[in-house]
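Support request from a user on the community tier.

User writes: "When I paste my structure tokens into the form, the page sometimes reloads and wipes my input. The last time it worked, I copied everything first. Here is what I submitted, just in case something in the input itself triggers the reload:"
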């Protein structure tokens, strides 16, 4: 029985942390307040060396973007509407609803220093027909005055694609 439980736990660990094939890359982690958080990448257009990235929480997609080799923009953030949806779908975050709506009323946006979720592509390099780089998740969850529910830069690992 202990061996079966151990096997299940090991299987869950590997299924939630890492997967890469020739055309797909996926990393997941449990982020406080967000639960199972995944970032996926796959070849979008091999002629133009483009990758498609997506950000999901509990299998719901909140961000999708295309990255082309030698692009100057390397940071992509979840939009305001999706941030509100994430807040409303998270029991840990929904208690901050009043403060977020006050910010929206006052500033007409959610200040990123209070609440933001961004994918940061770092050390992206194109060499011959290979595109590689690393992925960080920059997470600021409900930071007001001198305290934050959660704020961190999580490294999700590195990818490498051959076109």
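"...and here is what came back when it finally went through:"
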């Amino acid at each position: 029985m202990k061996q079966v439980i151990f096997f299940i736990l090991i299987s869950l660990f590997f299924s939630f942390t890492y997967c890469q094939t020739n055309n797909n890359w996926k990393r997941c982690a449990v982020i406080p307040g967000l639960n199972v958080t995944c970032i996926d990448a796959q070849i979008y257009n091999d002629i133009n060396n483009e990758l498609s990235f997506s950000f999901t929480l509990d299998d719901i997609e909140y961000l999708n973007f295309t990255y082309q080799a030698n692009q100057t923009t390397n940071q992509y953030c979840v939009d305001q509407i999706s941030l509100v949806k994430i807040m409303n779908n998270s029991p840990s975050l929904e208690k901050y609803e009043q403060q977020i709506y006050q910010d929206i009323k006052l500033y007409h946006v959610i200040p990123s220093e209070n609440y933001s979720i961004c994918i940061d592509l770092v050390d992206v390099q194109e060499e011959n027909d290979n595109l590689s780089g690393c992925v960080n998740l920059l997470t600021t969850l409900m930071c007001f005055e001198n305290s934050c529910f959660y704020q961190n830069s999580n490294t999700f690992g590195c990818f490498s694609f051959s076109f």
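Agent notes: The reload is a front-end session timeout and is unrelated to the input. The beta strands are 19-20, 24-31, 35-45, 50-57, 60-68, 75-77, 116-127, 130-144, 147-162. The helical segments are 2-17, 80-89, 97-107. Escalated to web team.
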